[in-house]
Amino acid sequence: MLDALKQQPQDKILMLMQMFREDTRDGKIDLGVGVYKDPTGLTPVMRAIKAAEHRLWETETTKAYTGLAGDPAFAEALSGLILGPSADPARMSAIATPGGTGAIRQALELIRLAAPGATVWLSNPTWPNHPSIIRYLGMPMAEYRYFDAESRGVDAEGMLEDLARVERGDVVLLHGCCHNPTGANLTLAQWQAVIDLMLEKGAIPLIDIAYQGFGDGLEADAAATRLVVDKMPEVLVAASCSKNFGIYRERTGLLMAFGSPEGRAVAQGNLAFLNRQNYSFPPDHGARLVTMILTDPALRADWEAELEEVRNTMLGLRSQLAAELQRLSGSDRFAFIGAHRGMFSRIGASPEQVERLRTEHGIYMVGDSRLNIAGLNAETVPKLAEAIVAVGV
Fold first, then answer.
1. Active-site hit among 155, 208, 221, 284
2. pLDDT below 70 — which residues of the chain?
3. Which of 39, 68, 221, 365 could disulfide-link 31, Cβ–Cβ 3.0 to 4.6 Å?
């Protein structure tokens, strides 16, 4: 049996990580993998996480399962962070998942269970795991225009033109904030136009929100998701705690489904069923830490303060890089880097230029020229800017 297996395509980001590890040059820069790094290159454990873990170690009395859907307190706490006090709990069903990827996978499984013929519409470009999972599940898939390669901003007109072809019951996957891989985000007015179109067409939004707090702040980054949930009759929201709580390896995520109060029990039962089929009980350690932080005023205040430090560090690096590129190139064509939000920007380099950045300058980024702003520091920004200009971006 095993001899019949075929080699699967390698993940490009994982391949890039391996190449970086094998590179023996001093001064190499990893801008590929999507994790936050402090100025020393460390992905730190946040202070509030450390404090919560210590408290949990002292008070936890069991490692027994919590339940198929996870601890309800986690769903309540995280949904409150994302949706605020206006969310109607009578409309929501939810399950804890192994990270945001697990939430996306379970959302797609739910769609396939409820509407196997529904087409899932993805932004072009999007996070590579989105189409990969959809193809693996054998689901219909289509793309809508999103990124304007000329302006490095959102092609809102093209997006609406493409989504006008959506059929009733189709699913539109949207990035709640800090679009990955481009860093370009819709304005709230553009979000409203997308909502109006989805309402007209009878489409269902699936929101992937993985970077709340990394863009313009916790409240501002949640505004679009709140607007969609408030206006649309049915919504799926896949949330990750990896980035904003810094608990990447704890695999902490949540899938929320919003529909009618009358259908809530059936939706919750189906979500629990899917958890049972995939991994039975979801991991709890990270979810419990998040719950402790969000429900303890002191821990939450410290977490929010540190998250704000992280956000401002990335904004400062964006401003520094945009200014350095303007100085070296004598043009403002890189101003979009300062306007983008989140960990990533797509700088518009060709695959050949990306390869030159790696081979000639030891700078590693994904082939589509997505770079991780959080992989930089004040000392490496000038080196990156010089390299970008040197290869002719």
1. 208
2. none
3. 365
